[in-house]
Amino acid sequence: MEDHTNLQQFKAEFFKALAHPMRIRILEVLCDGEKSVNELQTILGSEGSAVSQQLSVLRAKNLVNTVKEGTTVVYSLRDPLIKDLLAVARQIFDNHLVESISLLKGIRKS
Predict the structure, then answer these.
(1) I need a labelling partner for 100 at 20 to 30 A (CA). Which of 23, 59, 62, 66 fits?
(2) 63-85 b/e with 16+ CB inside 10 Å = b?
(3) CA quadruple 90, 67, 63, 91: dihedral, nearest 10
(4) pTM attached to this predicted model
């Protein structure tokens, strides 16, 4: 039973780390390859402190790797399966959207 509890705790902590729109976006960007902090800030259109704060959470939860290249820190996904997880989440969202649209069409016909 202990292993089961540990796994559930891991999952809860893992999903907590994903529970912020900017952290999700950072991971989505990193799905396309490693990026420096400056590149992430430019892509996200967000200020450095906000991006750094979210990267800190992702680092603490071991979702991203960091490599220092000179004065630049480069981030990458720690586990390539994160890309698959985000793709599945997108599919679930799309399914939910399709169901909502169908429901709306049904209401409009009434």
Answers:
(1) 23
(2) bbeeeeeeeeebbebbeeebeee
(3) 10
(4) 0.82
Q: How far apart are CA 56 and CA 50, in angstroms?
A: 10
Does residue 30 contact residue 75 with C-beta atoms inside 8 Å?
yes
- 66: its two tokens: 């960091």
**Tally of CB atoms within 10 A around 104:** 10
Note down pLDDT in tens along the chain; length 110 residues.
Answer: 567 889 999 899 999 999 999 999 999 999 999 999 999 999 999 887 999 999 999 999 999 999 999 999 999 999 999 999 999 999 998 888 878 888 888 888 76
